[in-house]
Amino acid sequence: MKKLIAAVLCFVTLFTVTIPVYASSIAPCANNIYSASTSFSISSTGKATVTNNYMGKGNLVTKATIETKIQKRFGLIWITVDGGKWTDISTATDFAESHSVQLSKTGTYRAHVEFTISGTGGSDDKITKNLEKTYG
C-alpha cells in the first residue's frame, strides 16, 4: 500500500511540475483578430518611434481604436511626454501605423498601447502592450 501511495504521489508531483512549462506557451484567444503587436525604438538622437499593427480575422473587424502613449518614468510613475499621445481609429481588417516624437531628456521610456477591437466575432478584444527602452 505504501508503494502505491508513493507511486501516485510521484506521478502527481511529476505531472504538476510539467504544467507551467506547457502553460507558458498558451496564447490568449481573441474574437476578432489573429494578432496585435507593437514595436518601440529610440534612435541615438532621441527620436522615439512606435509601430502598432493588428491582423483581423476575415471581415469580422467593425472598428478598432488604438491609443498610444510614450511615457517617461519618474520614480514609480509614468508621465506621458509632450506630443507623445495618439489615437488611431480604423475599420480595416489589417492595420499598421507608426508615430514618432522627439525626446528632450535621457531616461527610461515606455510605449503604452491599448488596442480595442470591435467586431462581429464576439465581444471586444482588449489588448494592452507596454514596451520599455532607455535613452541616453
Description:
The chain is α+β, with helices and mostly antiparallel strands and 136 residues long. The chain is 16% helix and 62% strand. It has one helix at residues 2-23, and strands at residues 33-42, 47-56, 61-74, 77-90, 94-102, 107-119, 122-135. The strands form two sheets. The protein has a four-stranded antiparallel β-sheet with strand order 4-3-6-7, with no helix packed on it. Strands 1-2-5 form a three-stranded antiparallel β-sheet, with no helix packed on it. It is flat, with a radius of gyration of 21 Å. Residues 17-26 have low confidence and may be disordered.
**Gyration radius over CA:** 21 Å
Largest sheet descriptor? 4 strands, antiparallel
Give the helices and strands as they follow along the chain.
Answer: HEEEEEEE
Span between termini: 66 Å
Unreliable residue runs: 17-26
Strand order of the largest sheet: 4-3-6-7
- Strand segment count: 7
> How large a portion of the residues is in β-strands, by DSSP E?
over 45%
The residue-averaged pLDDT reads 89
The helix-and-strand class reads alpha+beta
